[in-house]
Amino acid sequence: MRVLGLMSGTSADGVDGVLASFAGPPRWPRWKVEAHHFSPYPADLQRQLIALGQGQPLSSAELVELAEAVTEEQARAARACDPGGRASLVGCHGQTIWHRPPQQGRRGASWQLLQGPLLAELLGRPVVFDFRSADLALGGQGAPLVPPADQALLGRCGGWRAVLNLGGISNLTLIPPATGPERHQSVRGWDCGPANTLLDLATRHFSGGQLAYDADGAWARQGRSDENLIQLWLREPYFQAQPPKSTGRELFGQADLERRLAQLEDRPPADALATLTGFSAAVVGQELGHGPQPIEMLVAGGGCRNGLLMSQLVERCRGLIVRPLAELGIAEAEREALAFAMLAWWHVRGHRGNAPAVTGARKAAVLGLCARPQASAWPM
User: What is the mean pLDDT of the chain?
Assistant: First the structure.
């Protein structure tokens, strides 16, 4: 089956689309990426989404219009990735606006902005969406959802294999080894903390909005990081907490950046960016201590293009082989869209897509809701 996966992450910079084919048993499928396309959001839409994610209030009318705009951009990205309409199914994550993990006896909640039935009509194909709700209803974090797909797509090696995504938020997957006493353990995974969120917000701040991100870490390379401050930040409650755990802009957003910049005490922008870059890498190095020790770490996401961040990762994860996920056939920008294509395929196959060991849910569940276009029956 050909499935089109659509993913827009915490950075809200646009939509990655992946057209992939899947066959065979759901747990260990045969798969192939046939196309990938990135469609950037219009600048004004990105600004509105980031502001909403930071808690800026909007009227009901504005929220409806924003949901329509996001849905239309998802449709545009789908057509660009699959202009011939070869996919028979679409899996769309939507745009996360707010994420509240379970805490102190209170269930979690997560809001992905999307009008699923409208997207199905615009594309004329069934759309699986709202992937997080079932896990949340079962007491889970609702995130991360990609680790089971990572395991199915990448397979196992001779030891624990880590997959790191450097998006707005960094998250880890730990895949158990193929042999040995730990081979029967479940896949692990959790959100580590900020990867690009604070860096991008700081770059916009220091450039007066002229730069969206620090390309290749060039600005940060001109500064000197404050290691004492990094070590102080690593003692904060989120980084001391054990998995399952998930986070987003709610914790690591504009208010958090302002707090950290105040602690940097008006140091030059290059020093602040160098410190924030080192912090993003140090978070990963420390978080690796919350699980079994992997023998290698495969890295994906937009942060792969930041050479300084990557060199910091290698330095702070000593003894670990760090290499691009692309070496295993999944390009840095394809991983999450491919995963949601697989989750949509799992939905129609009735295969449970979450991992309770990752999210903390009471049990595994089939994820997502399916909206079908009204023009035809679209048998599944």
Answer: 96
Distance, in Å, from the CA atom of 329 to the CA atom of 348, rounded to the nearest integer, reads: 25
By the 8 A CB rule, do 128 and 90 touch? Answer: yes
Q: Which residues have a Cβ under 8 Å from the Cβ of 240 and sit 6 or more positions away?
A: none
Name the pLDDT band for 136 (thresholds 50, 70, 90): very high
Q: What is the mean pLDDT of residues 38-59?
A: 93
**Is the pLDDT at 375 greater than 70, yes or no?**
no
Q: Return the ∠ at Cα 21 (arms to 16 and 24), rounded to 5°.
A: 135
In the structure, what pLDDT confidence band is assigned to residue 55 with cuts at 50, 70 and 90?
A: confident
User: Residue 305 contacts by C-beta under 8 Å, 6 or more apart in sequence?
Assistant: 215, 216, 332
d(CA 239, CA 283): 7
How many CB atoms sit inside 10 A of residue 127's CB?
Answer: 32
Burial 344-367 (b: 16+ CB within 10 A, else e): bbbbbeebbbbbbbbbbbeebbeb
Domains contained in the chain, CATH given: 2-140+348-371 (3.30.420.40), 147-328 (3.30.420.40)
- Provide the residue type at 3 as one letter: V
Rounded Cα distance, 184 and 347, in Å: 24
The pTM of this model reads 0.95
Rounded Cα distance, 17 and 82, in Å: 8
Q: Is 100 exposed, middle or buried (0-12, 13-18, 19+ CB in 10 A)?
A: middle
